[in-house]
């Protein structure tokens, strides 16, 4: 830097320092003058300001009556809601609007099963029993539109070693016997909200220990279930209770086993199995139940292997909730049958008797074609080893924010 430039900078620094000192002296003098003016002068000025403020506030309050208009609102243009929060909000609205519909379905179920228990007797055919229950449900639903209300799924009347998914087809001559153990599993829906509830019916009291074991296991599952509970913990509790029981039949003692590949599940609108599986044995699944879930707690006990396989003539069918990509309906008869299924059942389960009832004929080829294409799913009977006995109890439970509602509970079970 040149000597001349250095001298200029030094002069500027001196000038700035003098100006700062003069400013500080002026402020000090002003402060002294204010302090010497006395308390009287201060009070006088203060009272004037207060008076003006009170008049101003009075005018504003009188004009707006204490409630003032907002300014302009503008969005942040930020996405602050996650997919999880959106899903939760939808579930809340869906659940709260559905509870009364579930309760209506539950009341229909209680009355229909009470009537059935009073009427069922040895010697009745399976078709007679199934249609008796279904006629009661349809009559109480108050609609002829099967999509608005009625049967949520076909009446299961599985006997003895058959644990589930049996309902009679046309021409079935099976008759109920005194020594049969019959699982009565039927659904009621109101606007697509399904009550899934089942019980086991016997005439011979020798089966009472089996029924008691399964009933107690189901109640344990209900007691254990709740928000944030892992499904494996429910299964573990059920298994512990179920397998603490045994039964003596004809002089031989049988341990009562959980049927480990049958499970409970959550229920969605017009979707009986909603994607969550609730085991009845400990299986290590850490999936947790959530607020506003609707769940079916169902347990199955067996004197056999405790493991089921598919066997027998299929009666239960259901349209896949999500259609497989690329699925095509090649047969004209199959297209017409699918249109009938859509108009009468949608994605609710149905059986061959229901197709007979609405006037469908010679449909088996078309039905099987829809199954092969993946448009429908078939659900054949599920059986344990022949000669054993199986039992089932089930309830639908609403997981509300502060409590759970066993909505299908009745005086009977």
From TrEMBL:
Read off the Pfam families from this record: Peptidase_M24
Q: What is this protein called?
A: Methionine aminopeptidase 2
Q: Which UniProt keywords apply?
A: Aminopeptidase, Cytoplasm, Hydrolase, Metal-binding, Protease
Q: Which GO terms describe its molecular function?
A: initiator methionyl aminopeptidase activity; metal ion binding; metalloaminopeptidase activity
> Where does the record place Basic residues bias?
40-52
Catalytic activity, reaction form: Release of N-terminal amino acids, preferentially methionine, from peptides and arylamides
Q: Which SUPFAM superfamilies match?
A: Creatinase/aminopeptidase, Winged helix' DNA-binding domain
The GO biological-process annotations, alphabetized, read as: proteolysis
Q: Where in the cell is it found?
A: Cytoplasm
InterPro entries for the chain: Creatinase/aminopeptidase-like, Met_Aminopeptidase_Type2, Pept_M24, Pept_M24_MAP, Pept_M24A_MAP2, Pept_M24A_MAP2_BS, WH-like_DNA-bd_sf, WH_DNA-bd_sf
Q: Which family does it belong to?
A: Belongs to the peptidase M24A family. Methionine aminopeptidase eukaryotic type 2 subfamily.
Name the species this protein comes from: Pichia inconspicua
Q: What is the lineage of its organism?
A: Eukaryota, Fungi, Dikarya, Ascomycota, Saccharomycotina
């Amino acid at each position: 830097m040149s000597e001349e430039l250095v001298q200029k900078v030094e002069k500027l620094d001196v000038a700035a320092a003098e100006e700062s000192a003069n400013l500080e002296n002026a402020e000090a003098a002003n402060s002294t003058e204010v302090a010497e003016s006395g308390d009287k002068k201060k009070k006088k000025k203060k009272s004037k300001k207060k008076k003006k403020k009170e008049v101003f506030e009075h005018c504003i309050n009188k004009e707006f009556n204490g409630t003032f208009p907002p300014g302009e609102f503008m969005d942040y243009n930020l996405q602050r809601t996650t997919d999880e929060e959106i899903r939760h909000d939808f579930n809340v609205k869906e659940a709260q609007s559905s509870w009364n519909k579930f309760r209506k379905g539950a009341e229909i179920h209680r009355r229909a099963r009470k009537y059935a228990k009073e009427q069922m007797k040895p010697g009745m055919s399976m078709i007679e029993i199934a249609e008796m229950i279904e006629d009661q449900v349809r009559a109480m639903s108050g609609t002829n539109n099967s999509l608005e209300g009625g049967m949520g799924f076909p009446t299961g009347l599985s006997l003895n070693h058959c644990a589930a998914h049996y309902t009679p087809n046309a021409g079935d001559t099976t008759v109920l016997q005194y020594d049969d153990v019959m699982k009565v599993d039927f659904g009621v829906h109101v606007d697509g909200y399904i009550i899934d509830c089942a019980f086991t019916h016997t005439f011979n009291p020798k089966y009472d220990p089996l029924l008691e074991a399964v009933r107690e296991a189901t109640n344990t599952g209900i007691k254990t279930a709740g928000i944030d509970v892992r499904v494996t913990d429910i299964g573990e509790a059920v298994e512990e209770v179920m397998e603490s029981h045994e039964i003596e039949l004809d002089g031989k003692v049988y341990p009562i086993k959980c049927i480990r590949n049958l499970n409970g599940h959550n229920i969605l609108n017009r979707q009986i199995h909603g994607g969550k599986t609730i085991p009845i044995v400990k299986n290590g699944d850490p999936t947790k139940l959530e607020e506003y879930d609707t769940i079916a707690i169902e347990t199955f006990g067996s004197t056999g292997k405790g493991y089921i396989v598919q066997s027998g003539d299929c009666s239960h069918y259901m349209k896949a909730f999500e259609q497989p990509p690329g699925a095509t309906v090649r047969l004209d008869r199959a297209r017409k049958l699918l249109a009938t299924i859509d108009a009468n059942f949608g994605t609710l389960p149905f059986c061959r008797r229901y197709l007979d009832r609405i006037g469908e004929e010679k449909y088996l080829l078309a039905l099987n074609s829809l199954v092969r294409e993946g448009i429908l799913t078939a659900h054949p009977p599920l059986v344990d080893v022949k000669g054993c006995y199986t039992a089932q109890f089930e309830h639908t439970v609403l997981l509300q924010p502060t409590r759970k509602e066993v909505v299908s509970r009745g005086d009977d079970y």
